[in-house]
Every structure is written in structure tokens, then in C-alpha cells.
Amino acid sequence: MNTTLDPAGFELLTFDCYGTLVDWERGIVDAARPVFQARGRSPSDGELLAGFAEHEHVVQAERYRKYREVLALTIERMADDAGFSPTAHECEAFAGSVGSWPPFPDTVEALRKLGSRYRLGVVSNVDRDLFAATQVALEIDFDWVVTAEDAGGYKPAPDHFDTMRSASGIPAKRTLHIAQSLFHDIAPASALGYATVHVDRRSRGSGGGATPPARVRPTATVQDMAGVVELMGLGDTRSVGVRPCHSAWRSGG
Of 73, 100, 127, which closes a domain? Predict the structure, then answer.
């Protein structure tokens, strides 16, 4: 861990969801593999993730589409690279799998501990309905949620962060953004003046994973959400109950 952070300087912690709180690489691989296996193909996890990283952000940058459509086009282009066309049902199933992607084992308890001191928000490249399914698994109600639907676009564009700031009324200097993706989150948040924590969940793995590379220096780096809890001075906090909700859904959209 490295840090120059003062935990007392922040009121709001914002999180990327998929890749940071939720094991999206496991979800992507588990949802994509059957599409390839049905044609006798056996790509490795790394190959599937590299294909996803190559195409997803390109689809997002073309024009605004709902994330279900982004995912359907992403798996279609991954399959095209492999020389076949997936069925419409396979594309829809891949896109709809997001709500079943599992949280990392450390996520739920970490959010409970962090929520005992800070207000919590999510800025996510996903549709509202898909995140709603994920939120059930996270077992916590966030103070503010900004989706791609609310922002009208996808990170690394700044719209998510601008929408969150407007909705919460909390300035960047009092907000800490926490995320796994340097490309989608740490780079744009840093450019906007936010302090950032990189949750480097791939520090023990190999390959680039499901996100494109980016050159940026976060304010601090940890390996998991337990590291975030320790970083914010809550490492010795006992287990706490489910955090009460300040609002049902405040997305700013």
C-alpha cells in the first residue's frame, strides 16, 4: 500500500462497480465461454478478457447505446474475430448476465465498514436495471448512483463524475474515487482533480484483463477492498450491521 491520503479529508467515497466491487472478469469469462464452446472453441480466460478489452470501449465510444446493446455488440465482435456469428439469443444472454456477476468476497463487509463513516456513491458504465440486480447482491443502499444511462455516456468521459458532483453537492476535494480500472476511472478522475485509490486486483495475476491500459499515477494503491478499509483507518472496526439508506435512489439522471 502507498498513500498520501488523510481519511478525515473526505466526506464521500465513490466507487466503480464492475471490476472493483464485483468480479466482472469472472462474470465475463463465465458468460462468454459457452458461446465459444458451442462451436468447439476453447479460448483461455486471458484470450476472452483481451477480446473484451479490445472491443467494449470501442463500442462505447461510437455513440451512446444502452449497456445491454454494448455487451451484445462486444460478444458479437469477439465471435467475429474467431470466425463465427453468435445467435441473437446468445448475445442477449451475455448482455443479461451482468446482474448475476458475483461480488468479490471482501466487498460487502468493506462497504458496511466504510459506510459507517462516509457517504457512498457508485459511478458505473451500466444500465439502471442491470445495476439494480447487482445492488441486491452488494447488500447496501448507496447514497447516490450514477449509471451510463444517467450520464448519457461512458467513462472515461467525465460525465459520470460531473453528474455525481451535481447530484451530491459534494465537491471533488471532499470526494475520494476508488476503482480498479486505470483507463475508465483513475485517469479521468485524476484529471478532474479527484484523489484516487487504485484497487489493483490484478496485482497477483497476469495479462491486461478486461480493460485497456492507461498511464496514470493514483493517489494510493491497494490490492483489494480490505485494503481500502485499512487505508481509511477502519481496519480494526468490528463487523457492523447493514447501513441505513439516506435515499432510495438518487442518480442525478
Answer: 100
Q: Are residues 54 and 13 in the same domain?
A: no
Entry pTM: 0.88
Residue that has been written with the C-alpha cell 471490476 in this structure: 19
Question: Which pLDDT tens digit goes with each residue over 139-193?
Answer: 999 999 999 999 999 999 999 999 999 999 999 999 999 999 999 999 999 999 9
Asked whether residue 173 falls in the same domain as residue 195, the answer is: yes
Instruction: Tell me how far apart the alpha carbons of residues 170 and 10 are, in angstroms, rounded to a whole number.
Output: 10
Query: Is 106 marked active-site?
Result: no
Within this chain, do residues 19 and 30 fall inside the same structural domain, yes or no?
Answer: no
Selecting among 6, 16, 129, 185, the annotated active-site residue is 16
